[in-house]
Myb/SANT-like DNA-binding domain containing protein 2
Amino acid sequence: MYERCSVKLADMGIFHSANSCRDKIKKLKQDYKKIKDYNNKSGNSSGEAGQLSGLETSELSPPDRNSSTCSSPFPPSKRKRKRARADNFIDTIVAMEDRRAEASKENEDRRAMVSKEIREEQLVHSRKAQEAEEQLLMVMARQADVSARQVEQQNTFQIGLLGVLSELVKSNRPSSL
């Protein structure tokens, strides 16, 4: 029973262990008994003086599903109020589950939107990286062209210089040889 209580609370986003659920229910029962005893001693047993004056012991324990007749010691008018409280409790639980479902849907929508934004940012960064890589390749191609022209100019200069030196050497040679 306490494990189921813990699981239901976890479904609502409230995380407590089965032991803490057991301790809380035990504490509620103790408080109920103290208030009931106090009300009996002070004469407030029929009034609304206590914190849990409307809460009955049978509400704290599971219902007897095998019983075909109502075994409540309270008159039918009190049983109706109990039933109404149970209906209100169920309505509250249903409303809480609806709110949780709405919140879950909103969270899913937010996650989907954030995921889409992240994918778009990744595409933008990928495009920028590709553009940067293309620019780098263009710069490297230009540098290679410049280097090739420099090498060609150096070769032309060296060939020309060798030609000039060769003519100087020929002109400075004595013709007698």
Remarks:
- The two ends are 124 Å apart (CA to CA).
- Residues 47-74 have pLDDT under 50 and may be disordered.
